[in-house]
Amino acid sequence: MIDSKTRVLQSNINPIKQHHVQWNNTYDIKQQENRINSLLDKLKLVPEINPEKFFLLTRGYKHRYFAVCIDENKQKVIFNCLVRYDKLSIQSYQKELRFAQLINNPHFPHKDYLPTYLQVSQSPQELWFIQKYISYAILENKENMGQLAFPIKTQQIKNIANTMYDINTRLLKESYPKLTMHKFDIDNKITEIFQIILPSLKIKGFINESSIKVVERFIYSCATLVKRSNYYFVHGDFNLGNIFLSTSQNIKIIDWETYHQNNHCYDIAYLYSRLFREPAFRKKVVSEFFQLIPEDKKEGSKILFRFNILHLTLSYINYGLFIELTKKDFQLQRKWFIDLAKNNASKFSLI
Predict the structure, then answer these.
(1) How many CB atoms lie within 10 A of CB 106?
(2) Is 143 a domain residue?
(3) For residue 54, which phi and psi values (nearest 5 degrees)?
């Protein structure tokens, strides 16, 4: 029998909610089902949600398959394997495998918030890993993406902020130069904003000429600071779905395939931008994070936060699908992104 904690963990799967969305046919789903089933048999793992059910829920839009499994010793573990073998997906997944091998090294300083990797694949043709089961509750309500799954206490918010700050300011010192990390390409992002995103948003009617000028002035004014601050370790996908909390207020952070070097306010801005349903929590977690920043860096950090919010939300508005949301919620979220972009183009603003 699957206990309540397993059900909470397994709810990490986001079902597709926009019913008009067709199945992703960029790869052979039946072939992947057969391959994953063979791999599970080989590893002697019995999944709670088999590949067939997983693909039915996600319609082929997840690039990974993951499930709570029972191993040959009757222990719960988490199995994760790559589904889409395109170049970008392979590179991202290999990053997490390298990260797993690094933190499994006995000389790497222990971090309670890091997951425990029990096995990591060695073959480039078959990319997978097995993690120790996390008996914590996932923070995101998967029926309503961007919403907390349960009420959260002040100390838990402090712990989330502290964990993020530790990742951003200390983890790089302990992993570098053992990890190969790319740097956030600021020049390319600015070019993309000015030549692709803003013209596209103007055509779609989401932004007018005067707003574009405000965005341009701000980005040009802070470009030097952003480049100078581009050397911190960031998780890259710090959202509620990747945060687990225990009843004793311990934290686990999962999904490490998007880590890279960026400024120290990227992860907090990323988390904030995904919390359109949680106004109280999003303000509190940013406040707690900024209390950890040295006083002489606070003003510069506010500028970095605004820059991150701006380029993230503009990209979300232009490219975002968010098919895990209903059409109504997608429209609400897009409005939130637009308001957030407009406010932070002018000033540091927690709305």
Answers:
(1) 5
(2) no
(3) -60, -50
Residues 172 and 299 in one domain: yes
Other beta carbons within 10 angstroms of residue 78's beta carbon come to 23
**Burial of 297 by CB count in 10 Å (0-12 exposed, 13-18 middle, 19+ buried)?**
middle
Rounded Cα gap, residues 284 and 311, in angstroms: 22
Token duo for residue 332: 């609400």
Tokens of 140: 């995101």
Residues 182 and 329 in one domain: yes
Q: Hunting for tokens 């079902």 — which residue is that? A: 15
Helix (H, G, I), strand (E, B) or coil at 336: helix
Identity of the amino acid at 137:
A
131 & 162 share domain:
no
pLDDT along the chain (351 residues), means of 10: 39 52 68 95 96 86 92 97 92 94 86 94 92 94 89 95 94 68 92 95 92 94 95 95 90 95 97 94 97 96 96 92 73 87 84 73
Strand-pair category, 64-70 with 46-47: antiparallel
CA distance 250 to 11: 20
* Token pair of 349 as six digits: 């603003």
Q: Give 23-83 as a DSSP string.
A: P--SS-HHHHHHHHHHHHHHTT-EESS-HHHHHHHHTT--SEEEEEEE-TTS-EEEEEEE-
In which residue are the tokens 């977690």 written? 285
Pair (163, 118) in one structural domain = no
Residue 85 sits in a domain of what CATH number?
3.30.200.20
Cα torsion 102, 107, 113, 118: sign? positive
Distance, CA of 66 to CA of 147 (rounded, Å): 22
**Full residue range of the structural domain in which residue 304 is found:** 154-346
The kind and range of the H/E element at 301 are helix 298-319
User: What backbone phi and psi angles, to 5 degrees, belong to 87?
Assistant: -60, -45
